[in-house]
Q: What sequence folds into this?
């Protein structure tokens, strides 16, 4: 039985001429299905994913230097055990960049990240292992120290393995904290901003699923029962709802008429609102919009400036916090060792600025050409040994 035959069967004779007030059936939209502060669902927003990726990926690519200070000079320690973990990997599952990327992303999404310090029987550090923050429950002990209970998932039949790590056993990275103990994510601080962006995306998805057609009203002469209303709604949805049915021909009889009852996305300024949400969320993460793909106001010049702005104001505060926590957790106060993320590598994508700064450094006597070559990853220039006169020859 076709859709029209079904309608004719229960609507009765369409020739009735006595006036009956119309019964309207509105095609409803959908609401916001998720809590935007949930980090996994928030990453469904492309701008959140892009911001987290650019921050975590860039920091993961920064070279790491371990050095000591002696008589005011900084001396690199390429054979330090931490440099070996950087080169060979902090654990059997991750390289160093993967560990930093996971930890930074966890800080941006959850407000906290936990890295376990693995030690041998002598107490020496032999590995670092990232622990997902959803596995962790933090507690403040009566001694004033922090403890982290880790519930590590096992096989389904075995449940979760619980173990306790003390502050000395972990590297605890955190975003800005309200109590000094546990960080609070930017997602939770900007809940309403993310809620609006999530609602806009949900509306856009539902609009496309309805075949990119605005919702409206079916007007039917006469009074309908609840069963007839449900049948009409479901029959109309199955025939004309969804993107697969976009553009299908609408044929109505029996006095049924269709009237559009919803403003279009253009009238609702949906596209402009979504662009503004991109800018808002970029502000939340402190990332210039061109770096998360918003080039609506971008030019070549201000995109270059945005990259510098990103290094100075977005990355530097985060990098300095990570350096301080790594130094505290791995070396302790009073240690002669320090760790540093070399941010000068960020200039490698701007050769004009990089070589201009090299030239100034050489002319001012700050660096020599061989030091410049070392910065660029080249070997020192080979200097031929001075030719000594052989016996019997007269020196020039």
A:
């Amino acid at each position: 039985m076709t859709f029209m035959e079904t309608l004719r069967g229960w609507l009765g004779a369409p020739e009735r001429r006595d006036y009956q007030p119309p019964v309207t059936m509105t095609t409803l939209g959908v609401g916001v299905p998720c809590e935007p502060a949930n980090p996994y669902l928030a990453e469904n927003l492309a701008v959140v994913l892009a911001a987290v990726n650019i921050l975590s990926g860039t920091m993961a690519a920064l070279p790491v230097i371990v050095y000591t200070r002696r008589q005011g000079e900084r001396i690199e320690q390429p054979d330090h055990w931490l440099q070996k973990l950087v080169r060979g990997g902090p654990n059997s599952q991750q390289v160093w960049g993967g560990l930093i990327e996971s930890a930074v992303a966890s800080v941006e999404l959850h407000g906290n990240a936990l890295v376990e310090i693995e030690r041998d029987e002598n107490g020496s550090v032999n590995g670092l292992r990232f622990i997902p923050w959803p596995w962790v429950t933090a507690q403040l002990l009566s001694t004033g120290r922090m403890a982290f209970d880790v519930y590590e998932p096992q096989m389904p039949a075995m449940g979760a393995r619980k173990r306790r790590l003390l502050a000395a056993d972990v590297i605890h990275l955190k975003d800005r904290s309200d109590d000094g103990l546990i960080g609070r994510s930017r997602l939770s601080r900007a809940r309403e901003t993310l809620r609006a962006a999530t609602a806009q995306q949900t509306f856009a998805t539902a609009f496309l699923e309805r075949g990119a057609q605005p919702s409206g009203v079916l007007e039917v002469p006469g009074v309908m029962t609840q069963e007839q209303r449900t049948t009409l709604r479901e029959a109309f949805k199955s025939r004309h709802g969804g993107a697969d049915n976009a553009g299908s021909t609408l044929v109505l009889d029996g006095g049924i008429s269709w009237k559009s009852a919803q403003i279009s996305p253009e009238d609702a300024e949906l596209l402009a609102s979504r662009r503004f949400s991109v800018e808002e969320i970029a502000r939340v993460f402190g990332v210039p919009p061109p770096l998360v793909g918003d080039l609506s106001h971008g030019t070549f010049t201000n995109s270059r400036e945005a990259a510098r702005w990103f290094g100075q104001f977005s990355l530097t505060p985060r990098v300095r916090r990570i350096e301080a926590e790594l130094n505290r957790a791995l070396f302790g106060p009073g240690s002669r060792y320090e760790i540093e993320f070399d941010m000068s590598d960020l200039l490698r994508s701007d050769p004009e600025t990089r070589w201009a700064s090299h030239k100034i450094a050489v002319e001012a006597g700050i660096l020599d050409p061989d030091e410049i070559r070392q910065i660029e990853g080249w070997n020192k220039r080979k200097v031929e040994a001075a030719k000594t006169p052989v016996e019997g020859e007269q020196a020039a």
About this structure: The two ends are 112 Å apart (CA to CA). The chain has three domains: 3-27+213-262, 35-209+263-347, 350-384. The longest strand covers residues 112-119.
